[in-house]
Structure formats: C-alpha cells, structure tokens
Amino acid sequence: MQIQVNDSLMNVNVLFSEADIRERIKQLSEQINKDYGTENTLIILIVLHGALLFASDLVRNLGMPTEIETVRIKSYEGTSSTGNITLVTPLPKDLTDKQILVIEDIVDTGRSIDFLLKELRKTNPKSIKVCSLLDKPEAHEFPVKADYVGFEIAKHFVIGYGLDLDGKYRNLPYVADLKKA
C-alpha cells in the first residue's frame, strides 16, 4: 500500500497485524494481572493520543479495579522528535501512595517517558511501571526501559494502531512502517 505524505509517495509495510497485536495484548495483560493481583486499585495513566487504542484494549483485559487517567505530552513534528517535551495537560491530582501503570504507544529516544517519569516521581506514588506497545532500543538516548513491551522494532517511523503522522493514520488496525516509494 502507498500513501501520499506532503510531496512524497510512501510505502506502507505492515509490521504487526491486528491479530498479532490482539495476541500480544492478551499476553501482556496476563503478566500485568499476575504482577499486580486483582485486589488493589491500579491507576492507569494513558499517554494521549498515541496510546489510547492500545490502552483501551489492554485495560479491558485487566482483572484488578482500575482508575483511568490521561496525560498529554508533545515532542514530535512530522516524522521527527523536536527534542523539546511539553506537558500539554496537567498530571492527575493525588497520586501519593498509588500504584501507577503508564501506558505509552512507543519508547523511541526515551526523552518523553523519561520526562514523564520524573514528573510522576514528584507526586510520591507507591510504584510506577511503564507498558509500551512498541520499543525502539537502538534509538534510546535516555536510560529508560518499559516494564512491559508489546514489540521491539528497529529504527523505523511507524503509523497505525494509535501512532500517527501529523495526526493521521491512528485508526489503522495494524502497525506499519513508512519508507519512501
């Protein structure tokens, strides 16, 4: 498949199908259920907008009571990171002594999640873990590691299943990389 991006034609190559994603979410949720149990409330902090689809599918498979919160940070323009992180929405109030699971779409350079984790630690939570649909280890510039990872990928720019290109293509039911045609 090909799509038009500005003045360039781009090839779309599916990396993870809808079925692949569904199966991996089942495995991740089983591990999270095992790690947290079903008694205590888990604060789910969804990083908008990219993690929204992943988080909604994941949370439906969790067995413990959850409180769902959202936060929005911005670091991308087009296909590249700006290097600047902006907290677009404030963090939820009163996270003291709470167990927090941050759900992220992708750990790329690690700059965004590093920034968010530093901000969250200021709220004195009981614990913070990160669940990311995708991880790009070779792109990491910060020493961060997600506790739960759906898939590791090479240094590609990806779209679909919540990941976007200038706000578009989040609705694709799969994850695909883009390459010039």
TrEMBL record:
Domain Phosphoribosyltransferase, chain residue ranges per copy: 23-164
Annotated localization: Cytoplasm
Statement: the UniProt record of this protein carries the keyword Glycosyltransferase: yes
Example GO molecular function: magnesium ion binding
Pathway: Purine metabolism; IMP biosynthesis via salvage pathway; IMP from hypoxanthine: step 1/1
Domain of life assignment: Bacteria
Major localization class: cytoplasm
Regions that span the bilayer: none
Protein name: Hypoxanthine phosphoribosyltransferase
InterPro entries (alphabetical): HGPRT, Hxn_phspho_trans, PRTase-like, PRTase_dom
Keyword Glycosyltransferase: yes
EC number: 2.4.2.8
GO cellular component terms attached to this protein's record: cytosol
Cofactor: Mg(2+)
Catalytic activity: GMP + diphosphate = guanine + 5-phospho-alpha-D-ribose 1-diphosphate; IMP + diphosphate = hypoxanthine + 5-phospho-alpha-D-ribose 1-diphosphate
Matches recorded under Gene3D superfamilies: 3.40.50.2020
Recorded family membership: Belongs to the purine/pyrimidine phosphoribosyltransferase family.
Pfam family, one: Pribosyltran
BP GO annotations: GMP salvage; guanine salvage; hypoxanthine metabolic process; IMP salvage; purine ribonucleoside salvage
Keywords: Cytoplasm, Glycosyltransferase, Magnesium, Metal-binding, Nucleotide-binding, Purine salvage, Transferase
